[in-house]
Design a protein that fits this description.
By secondary structure, the chain is α/β, with parallel strands linked by helices. The protein folds into 2 domains: about 1-105 and about 275-370, Isopropylmalate Dehydrogenase (3-Layer(aba) Sandwich); about 120-265, Isopropylmalate Dehydrogenase. The chain has 12 helices and 14 strands. The chain has helices at about 15-30, 45-50, 55-65, 90-100, 120-125, 170-185, 205-215, 230-240, 250-265, 300-315, 320-335, 355-370; strands spanning about 1-10, 35-40, 70-75, 105-110, 135-145, 155, 165, 190-195, 225-230, 245-250, 270-275, 280-285, 335, 350-355. The structure holds 3-isopropylmalic acid and manganese (II) ion. 3-isopropylmalic acid binds near residues 89, 254, 285 and 287.
């Protein structure tokens, strides 16, 4: 089969990590007789520098004409003082809205190989996990095209009377469609869904909860639970094993997924898929990490795992997606670690601290062996 992939390396470490995701897809193509045509596009800081705007029209058009968008990261200190509508992050919001990807899937699991990189104690990891073993495996489903990110923003007044506002607004249909994505995901997993909101305070959250209570009737074999977001933030570090699928609003999902990434060992490991009506966006959840850009030390595994999600959700190549994941696990098994996932006594434990390119090469080699 032939797939057209828009490629947005972006800023900071984005280009260096997506380069390996591209090599992974090319390897799949060669070995399994598929064609991946990459269409390079610009957005974020790189586009501000070149075109004076974060999301040029031609970038969105190109992304729309492709089967999927593979994205690195955007942003950096160079563009931090620009006004809101010109910041690199606007490009992400424009792409998410423009492609209609309303559901952002962020899997966070503790890989046994990375247990040493997890800051939680074994007793904590065992609490609430199904078999009492220290482990967790959750999927955060974050609403991605609504809520406070897209509500009315503004400023009024001046001097000490100046005020600013951002509006959290959700319609029933926006909530319902992301809930259905989460229920479907739960059906293919451990059949537990936790709806996270702040319904004790926020009207928009009360609509989330009401809608969830209604929709839950369509999924009688899924156990639905409700948690306030503050409690959820606490439960994530108190007993993460209790969670299967979490579904929540745009801003709560943004915050909780960063928290989940730390207990999974490193934000350098977490991939994401943003899906909706058609095309998907696939990106690591880490940012552009300007401090480590260009030093060959960034972890490419989140980008590589994002390419696995792309294979699954945009190409229906599930076996190939599994091969990519297994290649990553094999490389971790053989002790390869970028510095973000190394243990303190790593060398003693047989770990090899490697840079971005050695890690990428190791994955390609493992993948070639698996295909
Ligand atoms: C993320 C990022 C983005 C977000 C930023 C860079 C706009 O933090 O994808 O989690 O808040 O959605
Ligand atoms: Mn974030």
């Amino acid at each position: 089969m032939r797939f057209k992939i828009a490629l947005l390396g972006g800023d900071g470490i984005g280009p260096e990590v997506t380069a390996w995701a591209v090599r992974v897809l090319e390897t799949i193509g060669t070995k399994r007789n598929h064609n991946f045509d990459f269409v390079p596009v610009k957005a974020g800081g790189a586009a501000i520098d070149e075109f004076g705007e974060p999301l040029p029209k031609q970038t969105l058009e190109a992304a729309k004409s492709c089967d999927a968008l593979l994205l690195g990261a955007v942003g950096g200190p160079k563009w931090d003082s620009l006004p809101g509508h010109l910041r690199p992050e606007r490009a992400l919001l424009g792409l998410r809205a423009g492609l209609g990807v309303f559901a952002n899937l962020r899997p966070a699991a503790l890989l046994p190989q990375l247990k040493n990189a997890c800051p939680l104690k074994d007793e904590v990891l065992a609490l609430g996990s199904e078999d009492g073993k220290p482990a967790f495996d959750m999927l955060i489903v974050r609403e991605l095209t609504g809520g406070i990110y897209f509500g009315e923003h503004g400023r009024e007044g001046s001097g000490s009377e100046e005020s600013a506002y951002d509006t959290e607004r959700y319609s029933r249909s926006e909530i319902e469609r992301v809930l259905r994505v989460a229920y479907k995901a739960a059906a293919g997993r451990r059949k537990k869904l936790c709806v996270v909101d702040k319904a004790n305070v926020l009207e928009s959250s009360r609509l989330w909860r009401e809608t969830a209570q209604q929709i839950s009737r369509d999924y009688p074999d899924i156990k639905t639970e409700y948690l306030y977001v503050d409690n959820c933030a606490m439960q994530l570090v108190r007993a993460p094993g209790q969670f299967d699928v979490i579904v929540t609003s745009n801003i709560f999902g943004d915050i909780l997924s960063d928290e989940a990434s730390v207990i999974a060992g490193s934000i350098g490991m977490l991939a994401s898929a943003s899906i909706g009506s058609g095309k998907g966006i696939f990106e690591p959840i880490h940012g552009s990490a300007p401090l480590i850009a260009g030093k060959n030390i960034a972890n490419p595994l989140a980008a590589i795992l994002s390419s696995a999600m792309l294979l699954k959700y945009s190409c229906a190549l599930d076996a190939e997606a599994n091969a990519v994941e297994n290649a990553v696990y094999a490389v971790l098994d053989s002790g390869f670690r970028t510095s973000d996932i190394a243990s303190r006594d790593g060398a003693a434990a047989g770990e090899k601290i490697v840079g971005t390119s050695e890690m990428g090469e190791a994955v390609l080699k493992a993948l070639n062996n698996l295909l």
